[in-house]
């Protein structure tokens, strides 16, 4: 009996102990194992990352990289839990929306000193260098690319409607989309975003209308310190935007998010779509419209002929809790320069971070050329920092999404919406 | 002979083992069975075997529950964890002060009632149908139960496309059947979106009722139906006086479980409408996810505690209300 008791207690203790043991990154035999976590996971991207990591390991035989790829919808939560525990992450994907709260909580490492004199800086575009520094000049991540809006349009439909050029301004877009709209034939003008992230295109319209007065350091602020929502141009923008919904968009687009918008354009039922460059790959695979039937144009402008590029970005950073910071920074450097960076941006349809990309035929031709046009004309397509790093950004997005929906459902006037947004941001900035 | 007396007879009738020689029932000492002495050593052995499970449950269930509960009384914002001080009932006040909270509660009630009634009725009908013997019954049963194996979020996404006004199958079928002239913007019109999510949830949940009720139906002895038929009872009377009374306990427990699960089931709505348009399909748990996404874990935990409290009160009243009925012999 005694033997059995001892055996049972031993088994129990072993189970508890093995359950509680933690796995720690090994550094036995001089080799360092880095843990890297991505957040915008998709299978093709994970494979690409693995191949880049293999190249890095070849160049650095004493560093091993263990890539963790949580599903996108759970990734941020998982990374937050890992960061909060203080260990277990070395290199990680940081986005412009997560850098604020994560650095605020002391979870990210400022790489500024480590990257002093790094030759990669000279090869990067001005946008990329700018995006890699926060307001206090700290470098919590190096962007791997940008997501920026351009106008996808149907070449055949605008021609049929009697227009020779794609729209250059929001007013042109309204005019052309209205002319094309014919619900009886299930032909719609504009793929309106009324569902998730409806706020993005609405604020892009407002920024275009106030482009001359917008503060380059804060896309939601005018140069005089007031919010962009208080400017008279903002009301014109929202009224035009509302007309675009009423006159030129499918009724059901009140609930349209990314998938419906892209599907609407890809299946040939809508003529215009404002989207990120990653959609180029999706539309290229469409069986409903051929490559000769569509193209992209630069983002539509406001009455002054200028517009603001609402660039979103993400990149690679290092956790403050990392025990192998030097090696982790080395990995960030590797991914942010040369072939690794070019490969990553091309295969993920991102606006590149390297200057050399504008000379690349991949970016110079076809639907990608509008992004090069925008990059090469910063006086017309203004580069303005968006306040995406503030701690209330998600709260704002949810609020603004609901307000845009209320407006297009007729439960809120553009004037009241703008007054409310003005009050919201004014209060937050106090 | 009435149906009720048939029930009594069948319980001790042929084909049913008598208590003689079977497992004894009732309380108190059991004659003829030697009771093992409880010693310290034996107690230790039991404790040792239970320890891993107890530690596991404590670490992975009770600790997060308690930690989560205290979060509801703290300024626990993921965007700034430098100040997680005690704030008392502030998070609860913020929940109640939100102008959308009333709509969220009303939607939750509609979501639960509007889902459970059709699920119960259709699930019951399906179970009655599947109880009959026919060719390929096993295959039909597997097909009916299939939705239960799919993730709620995925079902939400599938129905989002089915109900899409321009490209969805639902409008296409309705138009081809001549029931509508113009496509209905199911997920965009505030008064239609809730109907769409309820239809999706009914499709999903019917299965569980069908499984549970079918299992209960199969425990009803055939003799009861034969006796009822001899007594000249019609289909409706047989249903009301034999079938339903016999499976009342299963029905009550299934309804209780489903109410709790449906109330705690944001997946489908989240995938289908995200709570829109204009919060018209926002329920308490989707609202909680929304607050979590803002990083305000304090307020989200407060909502979580309110959900637990509300469901506890409901379960208590429901069990009290159904106990009397369940104790009445059919």
Automatic annotation (TrEMBL), chain A:
InterPro entries: Bact_solute-bd_prot1, SBP
Gene3D superfamilies in the record: Periplasmic binding protein-like II
Protein keywords: Signal, Transport
Pfam families reported in the protein's UniProt record: SBP_bac_1
Signal peptide from the UniProt entry: 1-28
Chloroplast keyword on record: no
Tagged with keyword Cell membrane: no
Domain of life: Bacteria
Similarity remark: Belongs to the bacterial solute-binding protein 1 family.
Protein name: Sugar ABC transporter substrate-binding protein
Automatic annotation (TrEMBL), chain B:
Keywords for the protein's UniProt record, in alphabetical order: Cell membrane, Membrane, Transmembrane, Transmembrane helix, Transport
Region (Disordered): 1-35
Biased composition (Polar residues): 1-10
InterPro entries: MetI-like (IPR000515), MetI-like_sf (IPR035906)
Top-level taxon of the source organism: Bacteria
Domain ABC transmembrane type-1, chain residue ranges per copy: 105-318
Key word Aminoacyl-tRNA synthetase present: no
Transmembrane segments: 43-63, 109-130, 142-163, 193-217, 238-263, 302-321
Cell compartment(s), UniProt: Cell membrane
Its membrane topology: Multi-pass membrane protein
Gene Ontology biological-process annotations: transmembrane transport
CDD domains, sorted: TM_PBP2
GO cellular component, one term: plasma membrane
Record Gene3D superfamilies: MetI-like (1.10.3720.10)
Similarity remark: Belongs to the binding-protein-dependent transport system permease family.
Protein's UniProt name: Sugar ABC transporter permease
Organism expressing this protein natively: Streptomyces spongiae
